[in-house]
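Retro notes - structure team

What went well: the batch runner handled both jobs without manual restarts.
What didn't: labels got mixed up in the shared folder, which is why I'm recording both outputs here explicitly, each with its sequence directly above its tokens.

Job 1
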Amino acid sequence: HSAKMASVGVSVASLWTEVNRCGQSGDFTRALKALSKILHDNKDDVTALHCKVVCLVQNGSFKEALNVMNTHSKVLGSEVVFEKAYCEYRLNRVESSLKTIENAPEQTDKLKELYGQVLYRLERYSECRSVYTDLIRNSQDEYEEERKTNLAAVVASVSQWENTPVEVLGLPESTYELCYNVACALIGQGKLTEAFNKLQQAEELCRVSLAEDSDVTEEDIEAELAVIHSQMAYILQLQGRADEALQLYNQVIKLKPSDVGLLAVTANNIITINKDQNVFDSKKKVKLTNAEGVEYKLVKKQLQAIEFNKALLAMYTNQADQCRKMSCSLQAQNPGHPLPVLIQVAQLCREKQHGRAIELLQQFSDKHPESASGIKLTMAQLYLAQGHVTKACDVLRSIEEFKHKAGMVSALVTMYSHEEDIDSAIDVFKQAIEHYQSEQPGSAAHLALVREAANFKLKYGRKKEAISDLEQLWKQNTKDVHTLAQLISAYSLVDTDKAKSLSKHLPSADTMALKIDVDELENSHGATYVRKKAAKVTGENPPKEPGQGEIKKKRKKKKGKLPKNYDPKATPDPERWLPMRERSYYRGKKKGKKKDQIGKGTQGATGGASSDLDASKTATSPPTSPRPGSVSGSTAASGSNVVPPRQQKPAASGATRKKAPQKKKKGGKGGW
């Protein structure tokens, strides 16, 4: 019996030797076979169970590893907290992974690394940034560059998705991943040219680093560069260079990169360039946005933009029911977002249901006043399309965000003038001037408004009302003679004494007179209507004596044309200059049968019958209402222009290859 026990002991020891050797060589499948034999004799061997979990993780069998940990949770306890959190993270159970990490008895360094990645996936960027900053400060190992890459990815994401200014961290740009992430941050700040240059730098670094490896082919390099090229295309698209962007995007699609996130974003951005054109291509590209796993590769705003664009594509391809269904679903998912409503409105406008469209816009505006500016602008546009100018003005004046901006004031004054509602137009000026008087007194925008208000009042004969504006302008610049003259003219109607006192400030007539040589001006090239000068007396041309007539040159008269039937022997008719009916021999027109009026008047009807058949001439016919005139500066809403398609915005790439979620391969953004 003792001999048998000894042989078992030798067998277990040799199995552990096998596990150790396989672990060092990376043959985890073979190690698992040895571990199974060990666990067959002792199913609760903590070390063997732990080793089995690690081997399964290394082989990518995350579900199986998690099952082992859950089955033997009592035995393993907190031994495998990191492995459990990591498996949950890799299985995209990010919330569960976060709880596992937060409930860990001790926060080890590797748990902190994973914590940073989990926070990044949850888009909790400020917390994530703190974690990485702390890790970089307190770590001394060969992974420092990867941590800095991930920190740069966080900075880029904050810049792009949260629209908050990012402080310069002084991060290195020694690798193409770091360079790429810095470019992403610059895009978020709107520094497009600088970002493009940084991407070119990243491309160069990538080529150099990959060229050092002899096993890497040109195809491998192009595949690695795909994310950089897609981001370059996005910048070109933002700069309005759509053709160049499209060419670059299609190059990326042809490479068929393995990153489904990169493909989805690139396809989405091609769809935004196509808009309502080339819809067949867009329908093919939209399939790439539905690939499995896309939802784990992109941030929420990117996924949202893709869904919005799918609804718009349904509208452009005349799939009205599908468009309605998708936009209603999107509205339920994003109740405070205006875009789903605008898509529904665009579809209704295509179907000429303007009344229903305005109802939808009003409902959203009442529920979500904080994000209703764009909605109200669309509502005003629809009112204008129907000719309801005053209603459009009322809607525009309710937009607090824009009501005092110069463009809005100009539009309102133009529309009120069209409706001949001068009082309302003046009231718009008054409110805007009061706003600037309290917020930016004396600014260029303030004075420009006062000037326009004064000119408008003078144009419509409201001189009395223009006095206060003109006085304010003149006080700002007392050398402005034109304004002073306008002010005196206005005061002359209400206060002549004031007008006289102000006229003292006018410059004298002498200073205003232009020193011009009239003779020189008349003799100048191109002068017309020159006064005739008196002839100068010279010795050669003495004055003519009275009676000495001036010999005039006779102009040759042209012979008039004679009638074709002219007979020189016959006496011409003495009454030939009188109208025919006034001549003595005129007997009136002969009364004969009326010829049929066929071929005259409307086609296929006689002149007499046409009036009898015209319903508008009968007493029962209602009077036709006048059609509304177009308003200056307004355009009618249509399905194609109420909601522009939006493109999706890229983020950053992380350094870690297997488990870092920050290695994001992204493309563009949407008109956000």
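Job 2
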Amino acid sequence: ATSSSSAMTRILIKGGKVVNDDCTQDADVYIENGIIQQVGKELMIPGGAKVIDAAGKLVLPGGIDTSVHLEESFMNATTADDFYSGTKAALAGGTTMVIGHVLPEKNESLLEAFERYRLAADAKSCCDYALHVGVTWWGPKVRAEMEKLVREEGVNSFQMFMAYKDTFMLRDSELFQALQHCKDIGAVARVHAENGELVAEGAKETLELGITGPEGIEISRPEELEAEATHRAVTIGNRANCPVYLVNVSSTGAGDVVATAKMQGKVVHGETTTAHCVLNGMQYYHQDWCYAAAHVTAPPLRLDPSTPNHLMSLLGNDTLNVVASDHRPFTIKQKAMGKDDFTKIPHGLPGVQDRMSVIWEKGVIGGKMDENRFVAVTSSNAAKIYNLYPRKGRIIPGADADVVVWDPEGSKTISVDNQVQGGDVNLYEGLRCHGVPLVTISRGSLVYENGMFTCAEGSGKFCPMRTFPDYLYKKMVQRAKSQAVKPVDREPYTGEVVAVANSGKRDVGSSELDTPTRPSTRHGGQRDLHESSFSLSGAQIDDNIPKRSSARILAPPGGRSSGIW
């Protein structure tokens, strides 16, 4: 039951420049039944289509915002946008798909949490959406539920936290097992990298020094804690043979770790946020408590004023692949729960509506990226990573009709007074943005035009995402075949063996293993170290031992074919 009449289902966008992540061409775009039917010049189309004049304008694939927090409870506060207001704000900003977060409480069923979110979102969402599920604790139940979510519920990404000690944080061994499991089931492993132990120590120390204001957030979690954890995440992912996707990359140090890992050939991708590549941490030293608190997030904005510029450059050169809003709006009243203690200020910044225009202003107008790279970081790369491409993230016949007509010359001044998104602050207040969405088309319907909405609550659909995205896993599957380690074939030792005095103690080695592990594969393997810095498990010495039940691979070797249809 769509609210659109039949005339709305046929749209011709005429005279514009179609921008994809690899090229720009002069072409008309004809849309019917929610699908892009034709792209080109002199199109033969049936009558009765609504014509949009795009002369002098760009026609872009709708934005995909890979991290939004709608109707989410976090740090004792519920975000100031539900799925209706949040997706409406997305459409107003030129974003046609959002990926939300399901964050189960410790020991809560991942499936139940997921189903609760689905119900809320299906009823309200105005645009297509998908969901990441947080792996906020670890155990056999989580392992089984992850597999069920992947097989039956259309989830293909999980987020792990190295920070948030005592709530979400996983220890290294747990993270290793979670990443191994993500690899087995072909999911995208999102990792929030900050050293949770040292963040907790830093917070204690900062409060003891009498620093209770918002500046404490940057003092207590400096960027070296992010750089260290980022390096650790990359290492753990490498040992687990799992592609790692780092979220909220917020500092030069962490960005450099990602760049180095890529140069070493590790399968690593990075996502940063609009705020981190535009704003710096001097905001925390503002005299007005409300203003400073409005910027509190984790990882925090960084004090080094060259950071945003650096992160924007990394987006421009493909070191960082995706820019999300990480939209998590709180009101000043909610932030004020931490008025006497910065550790109680809920973390989160608004921005689902601002992302596209702000990145255009600072990235494209700022000379850090061209319009094709803009499409890549705001849409196409996300579509590739989450296995939605080329149905989403590209303007070609057969793709979903999620399209934005973009005015590169137009401009608007951002203000909290005219925003659709929730919260009572806007981080970019007074910023004049060149590059604005004029028309947003979602699922083939015109939903936003020159400030007017025609979207129906609940008209968006959940997008099930397939496992083993080629963009992440193709290389991995091949490496597993080509770089297997093998035991050395040698005569067994037959000499004497010293007797071990048994003092009643258990074997020391096993006492630390308080989590079930896979059979040990430590053995005298031999490997040509000049060949690669990568070690992958192929044929193993323990192949005769039955593997854990969850190691069924959910796709054929080489991945499934990823055609549009």
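One thing worth noting from job 2: Residues 223-239 form the longest helix (17 residues).
We'll revisit the folder naming next retro.
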